[in-house]
Design goal:
2 copies of one chain form a homodimer. Chain A is of the alpha+beta class and 335 residues long. Helices cover 49% and strands 17% of the residues of chain A. Chain A binds chain B through residues 99-101, 103-104, 134-135, 137, 139, 141-142, 145, 147, 149, 151, 153-155, 157, 159-163, 233-236, 238-240, 243, 248-251, 253-254, 256-257, and chain B through 99-101, 103-104, 134-135, 137, 139, 141-142, 145, 147, 149, 151, 153-155, 157, 159-163, 233-236, 238-240, 243, 248-251, 253-254, 256-257. Chain A binds a DNA duplex (30 and 30 nucleotides) through helix 2 and helix 3.
Chain lengths: 335, 335
DNA sequence: GTTAGCACTTGGGCATGTTGAGTGCTAAGT
DNA sequence: ACTTAGCACTCAACATGCCCAAGTGCTAAC
């Protein structure tokens, strides 16, 4: 049995199964694809594929369906990225229009991606390593509570309420604000941890502890605004694509609700800046996603975009969409 | 047949059905509830209830289930709000702890509510009518793009990118910022539409048009920060509560994804500041929610909290939870 | 107005039969 | 050494028929 044909058979099985949602048998296979051999030969090949754990039969006398391992091989070695349709290109292009508000763009991106792929789309807020501090604001909410606001020149705004140990005066805040602002304006976010301590050190002793608290607040903002948030869209696709198909969507919804889980998931994925990464079924670190796959890639300076869907998914098309969207995102937000 | 007993029967049917998820028959009814009459009598009563459209039989020889109208009557006239359990009270109390960040509080509230009710919880961002302007910031992102930030003394931060028609200088922005800030600091958000025009009018003529654009931005922030956003949690409960129960969750997920739909839904609901409002099944203005009910109430100065779940839901408990959570929310955020 | 009794309906469970897609194997063909 | 035709076998899915329990509606008596 020839190695190339074996792969061809696997490809055919994956494609047919993704398309029909039904186990595919040897006879149907030779009919739909013009492999130059008979169904008996295919049966032999399939037996081998099954031995290798690439396909499996749900029950004795049904066709075969790909295993996680089968999909893996398919994705790694067989599939070719499909070009996008003209309409799809147009849709992505239209992302370039409209206001360049980061939130807005991400919002629209994630919707578009979910529509293109018919899956749940997920996008991580862009890293703002290179962003510069544009403004700092301290707002006294209650005697001991201060709202810390950190604005970057990219337009991203981070905010956090912190608890000062003791009563805080407005004057003190004003003073500290101008101190901080004077020292860190136009500084890279990534450098804050190095710069902030010296600012604190230069403050009058009686304000030192407050300044310390505020500095911590600012620093955590520079951290969290980098990675913390995630946006998603297309949850309804989970239900739709699984009409009469029992991917139990409960666990998946749970995973999607836990931003922590999703963040972990995305950042665990490889970081090949060129290609997209695929995590299939049980390869996922989270149990609830044992029947799901994640297709993701990085954009900009390292944040991730991707989709989540059933293992039985049209990988070539999906990968193409994710890749295209990521590229445009990089272009718009400026790597 | 006595009117009180008829209601009693309806109540029993609703309660049993909610509990067992199965149509309830006359015999089971007399066994579980000690109504002082025989099953034959109940049958007569049930026939009447069915005529009145309050209950229906899925097939000829099955028990009855409540109709939307039946639930309506139940909610309006029969049910008594159940007191919360001690554990539930404790959980709600613990909301009082931790930092009083608005986002944080709402986030935790909505999670808590979804856990208490086992439904999807939804909360609208609080109205900030009475909030005072604390700070205004303009950030130049690109030659023609300005980020407008509006900070309220409540700690809520609104932001928006606006498109100035022509190139903008940093100096101009600085000047306008101090003008605006001087005029509207400590002004009520609700008053902005009246105050802003006069600020614009006092600007130097060459900056007038930019000032006008910025003023519009500020105003829309004061509007949108009031109503626009919605937070939700517990989507996974949709799948869980419908294991082996075919509320098609697809349409519901769609509705939940459309913030517009949800906002409309919430604001269409009555505004009784004391009690909770319930919208049952087809009473909902959105078709996808024909098999769902919404239980909501106002909090603070008019925003809404509530839950969404299947029509077959434990209304008394749910209503109690929603009401209790709304009260605490009002207390924390200061009506 | 209530109740007991009874005939009637019907979905669900179960055992049984049938069908068809699909397999694995063997033996023959290239 | 592959490939192929043929064939016996397996098994989910569907269908059929049967029975049962739950439930109803009605009537006649209390």
């Amino acid at each position: 049995m020839s190695e190339p044909r074996k792969l061809e058979v696997l490809r055919a099985i994956v494609e047919d199964y993704v398309h029909s949602r039904e186990p595919v048998g040897s006879k149907a296979l030779v009919e739909r694809h013009h492999l130059g051999v008979s169904s008996a030969t295919i049966r032999n090949d399939m037996a081998v594929l099954e031995e290798e754990g690439l396909i499996a039969a749900p029950h004795t006398s049904a066709g075969r369906i790909p295993t996680d391992k089968g999909y893996r091989l398919f994705v790694d070695r067989i599939s070719q990225v499909k070009p996008l349709s003209a309409a799809e290109r147009r849709a992505i292009h239209s992302l370039l229009e409209g206001p360049d508000d980061v939130d807005d763009i991400l919002e629209r991106t994630v919707r578009l991606l979910s529509q293109l792929t018919n899956q749940v789309a997920v996008v991580q807020y862009p890293h703002s390593n290179r962003a510069l501090v544009r403004h700092v604001e301290f707002v006294l909410l209650a005697p001991k509570q201060v709202l810390v606001v950190l604005i970057a020149d990219t337009g991203s705004v981070g905010q956090k309420v912190i608890d000062a140990g003791s009563d805080v005066s407005n004057e003190a805040l004003m003073l500290l604000r101008s101190r901080f602002l004077g020292s860190i304006a136009a500084t890279q976010m990534a450098l804050l941890p190095q710069v902030l301590p010296s600012v604190v050190a230069l403050c009058p002793p009686e304000l030192r502890s407050l300044a310390q608290t505020l500095a911590q607040g600012l620093q955590s903002l520079s951290d969290t605004s980098r990675e913390e948030r995630i946006l998603m869209a297309g949850t309804a696709n989970l239900a739709r694509s699984n009409v009469d198909f029992p991917l139990s969507i409960g666990p998946v919804l749970e995973a999607l609700e836990e931003q922590v889980v999703m963040l972990r998931l995305l950042s665990d994925m490889g970081d090949d800046p060129r290609g997209v990464t695929v995590s299939i079924g049980r390869e996922n670190p989270y149990d609830g996603l044992a029947e799901a796959s994640v297709v993701a890639t990085g954009y900009g300076s390292g944040a991730k975009v991707g989709i989540l869907g059933p293992t039985r998914m049209d990988y070539p098309t999906t990968m193409a969409a994710v890749r295209a969207v990521a590229r445009y995102l990089s272009r718009i937000l400026g790597g």
